[in-house]
Design goal:
Layout (H helix, E strand, L loop, with lengths): L1 E3 L7 E6 L2 E5 L4 E2 L9 E6 L6 E5 L2 E2 L4 H6 L5 H8 L2 E2 L3 E3 L72 E5 L6 E5 L12 E10 L4 E7 L6 E4 L5 E5 L2 E2 L3 E4 L7 E8 L6 E7 L3 E8 L7 E9 L6
Parallel strand pairs: 1-9, 12-16
Antiparallel strand pairs: 1-4, 2-3, 2-5, 5-6, 7-8, 10-11, 12-13, 13-21, 14-15, 15-19, 17-18, 18-19, 20-21
Length: 306
């Protein structure tokens, strides 16, 4: 089951029914829920939002091959098979409302500091009142003294790029304002979306492996939809739409589809299979073999007739 919290991604959700409890640390996320005829309770929390709890009722689903494989019809197995006659929706949406009491005023973005420089007033020259011993005329002491313009160090004004990671500091000896580079705060950077750069399919002895190649690390979730297809959701990944039909040598896989997500965020990989299967998804960091990868291993399960 995939649980999402529209408008409150990153929530923590707990799920519980008569068969057990499960935890999803970050939404959107998936959990393997044991089927039960009893309701499933989903509770989600996130700081800044009010806690939300919903009840998911099971749906009757008949007795397909999954019931036979997981139970049978004798003794306790008959009871287990009756439990598997119910299923929950593949996707559950929990809507959280904002909590006004947890709102915090955002801090103002850092900017250049204002600089004030005190300019000393010019000192008038001293005028001597002694009589001149030469033939030169005595200056009029009542006239305003002639004062030349003092020379002060030029002050460079900050450039228009003051907000692009620089600050301006006056030199204590010369008075000249110098710019110093500063590190841009982490909160001002924006993470770029990843790109799906490759899709590979390989046949092994007991399973078929699908490899998704990316140019950087990416978030994902996987599970089954109502049609029994394996769904891999990539909420922050760009991709090129593609439909790849496969021959019998890649059984149980018959078709792989790459498309944009229905909500407009990221991409979705749909893997159509034939017969009962189990899937295992995990990611790998770059190594000597390849870059960022997500691996999906699909293993055929024995049919009820075997």
């Amino acid at each position: 089951m995939l649980v999402e919290t529209p408008g409150a991604a990153g929530s923590t959700c707990s799920l519980a029914n008569s068969k057990g409890t499960w935890q999803i640390e970050v939404t959107p996320g998936a959990a393997a829920i044991v089927r039960s005829p009893e309701p499933l309770y989903v509770r989600c929390t996130k700081y800044g939002f009010l806690e939300a709890t919903i009840t998911v009722e099971p749906l009757a689903r008949g007795m397909p091959w999954q019931n036979v494989v997981s139970g049978g019809f004798f003794g306790q197995r008959a009871k287990d098979a009756s439990d598997t006659a119910y299923e929950y929706p593949a996707l559950v949406s929990v809507h959280l409302k904002g909590d006004a009491s947890a709102a915090i005023d955002p801090l103002p973005a850092p900017g250049p500091k204002k600089i004030s420089i005190e300019v000393p007033e010019p000192v008038p020259p001293k005028i001597s009142h002694k009589a001149s011993q030469t033939s030169r005329p005595v200056p009029d002491i009542l006239a305003p003294p002639a004062i030349s313009n003092p020379r002060f160090p030029a002050i460079k004004s900050p450039s228009s790029r003051a907000n692009s990671g620089a600050r301006f500091v006056p030199d204590r000896q010369t008075g000249v304002v110098k710019s110093e580079a500063v590190e841009t705060p982490r909160a001002m950077t924006t993470a770029a979306a990843s790109n799906l750069v490759g899709l590979r399919i390989g046949k092994h002895d007991r399973f078929v492996r699908v490899v998704l190649d990316f140019d950087r690390n990416t978030h994902y979730s996987s599970g089954f939809d109502r049609e029994g297809r394996v769904i891999v959701r990539l909420p922050s990944t760009n991709s090129t739409p593609e439909v790849r039909r496969l021959g019998k040598e890649y059984a149980p896989i018959t078709m792989v589809t790459v498309a944009a997500s229905s909500d407009g965020n990221g991409s979705t990989i749909a893997i159509k299979t034939q017969g009962p299967i189990s899937n295992k998804a995990f990611d790998l960091e770059p190594d000597e073999i390849g870059g960022h990868r997500i691996i999906i291993d699909l293993t055929p399960m024995p049919s009820p007739d075997n």
